[in-house]
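[agent] plan:
  1. take the single chain provided in the ticket
  2. run structure prediction with default settings
  3. attach structure tokens to the ticket
  4. add a short note for the reviewer (M.T.)
[agent] executing step 1
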Amino acid sequence: MTTCSLKQAGRAAALACLASALAAAAMPAWAALGDIAPSRTPVSTGGNAGATHYLIGSTVRVTQAVDAGGTLVREYVATASGEVFAYTWQGPSAPDLYTLLGHYADDYQRGALALHIAGRDGLHAARVDTPGVIVESGGLMRSYVGRAWLPGALPAGVTEGDLR
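[agent] step 2 finished; step 3 output follows
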């Protein structure tokens, strides 16, 4: 059995706290749907250590990172306007949808409630389709997938099938 002093335990706790703070700082700050995304430097030129950036053609910049729950989140930004028009996710926990959806969160909540009242919300999957935002989510415990996008903000040549 290994023992340690309170001094050693305090150092270990401080180190663990520091490591988690640094990991959180490496995560990009997500903008909400419809907001202008912060400008990010591509990884190939020494960008954010916690995120990967790539382009889909010349119209879409995608930033992906793993959130605190271990879920891979992708942010889709129209390069011409800088507007976030979609998010996708896949991982062991659902992301904070209210942060990602921003002012579209109330539309999503009303749409989800309407599905529930109508008995059309699935046990493992749902699609909330409102005029402003579409949110698809589903999965089983520890395996969540989904996407949310603004149908009116998709750049020319981009379809919902491109959001993976």
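[agent] step 4 note for reviewer: Residues 6-26 form the longest helix (21 residues).
[agent] ticket updated
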